[in-house]
Amino acid sequence: MMDYQNQLKLQAYLDGELPEGEAREVADWLARDRDAAALLAELRQTQEALTGFEADIKLPETREFFWSKIEREIQFQDRPVRKPDSILTRLARVRRFLVPTVGLAVVLIAGLLTTWRSHDSIETSLEDSGAFTYHDYAAGTTLVWLSYPANSEVADEDDFGTLE
Amino acid sequence: MNSLEVFTVEKMTENDHSSVDDQVLVKAAQQGDMAAFEELVARHRDKIYARAYSMMRNEEEAIDLSQEAWVKGWQRLAQFQGESSFGTWMTRIVINLCLDQLRKHKRQRTESIEEISDESGGVERQMPIITVNPTAGLERGELRQRIDRALNQLSYEHRTVLVLHEFEELEYKEIAKVMGCSIGTVMSRLFYARRKLAALLADLKKEK
Questions:
Q1: What residues of A are in contact with residue B160 (Cβ under 8 Å)?
Q2: What is the spatial distance between Cα A10 and Cα A46, in angstroms, rounded to a whole number?
Q3: What is the pTM of this model?
Q4: What is the spatial distance between Cα A146 and Cα A144, in angstroms, rounded to a whole number?
Q5: Smallest CA–CA separation between B173 and chain A, in Å?
Q6: Taking CB atoms and an 8 Å cutoff, what residues of chain A touch B166?
Q7: Where are the domains of chain B?
Q8: Higher pLDDT residue, A62 or B116?
Q9: ipTM of this predicted structure
């Protein structure tokens, strides 16, 4: 029975994987050993049987159909992928609109205040600190609140009733 | 790229694609010419599919993997520098995809009987030598069928080593690198695969 290492060496000889010196030794051995020669012949037959095996295998799809699948996949994978926004990106986007929005808000508030001031006002009568006047020019209405008894009179009454 | 090549690529119309060599088509495809790439697919699709089929032994998987290989080929086209032929470059892509797929399969199933016997000492050492050529006198179609059946009975490790050595013509050390094992393991697996294949072909001859 041939040694396993020698069997592998025989195979390496067939595959051209042995250095020149070793290949010569194997060639000498093959000339003397019939079993070794028989094994080499078997290995060679198997190798030859496989020659050209793949050449007979054909893709079972038409050129057009096979290409259409590849083309579709290429286009699918090449499409631009939108990544989710990072916080910084979102902030930058918000900042872009922040200045005009704030500016607009300031103008609107100022406008509203001006309009409101020009139409409605609360005035305090100097003559009588207990009376408040409200003018609505748009509605053409004037309201007056009178807080009687006047604060000064109440104070006087309080003073009056205090026992020392 | 020299001026002549630029001229060739720019002037190439769809009808010209079939008449130019791979190198020109690759250059055109690298510049985004899909029609040139389609011609390359048409030229090499059978070879790429055949390699996938040899390794996977499943028509559907082989079609899917060869298609995936072509998509990857398009995406990596800029990396192709022409050190090997375009066909060889594409074959390496499909082989790597098949190896990944086979590894996934392996993780999902238990070891086959062949693998166990291989690990436990190797029955190939005791196999009688086949002295009569089991494929002698066979017609090409029948020979292909028999090899097909025999290859189906090999484990994926043995079949892959055989395919990489016999069809891809890789050296032992290259196979070891691709498969992530030692050269000794490659030699052992290749020896087993060949001896098993010879025995299976002899059995098929007897059945006949």
A1: none
A2: 14
A3: 0.70
A4: 6
A5: 10
A6: 47, 50-51
A7: 3-107, 111-207
A8: A62
A9: 0.81
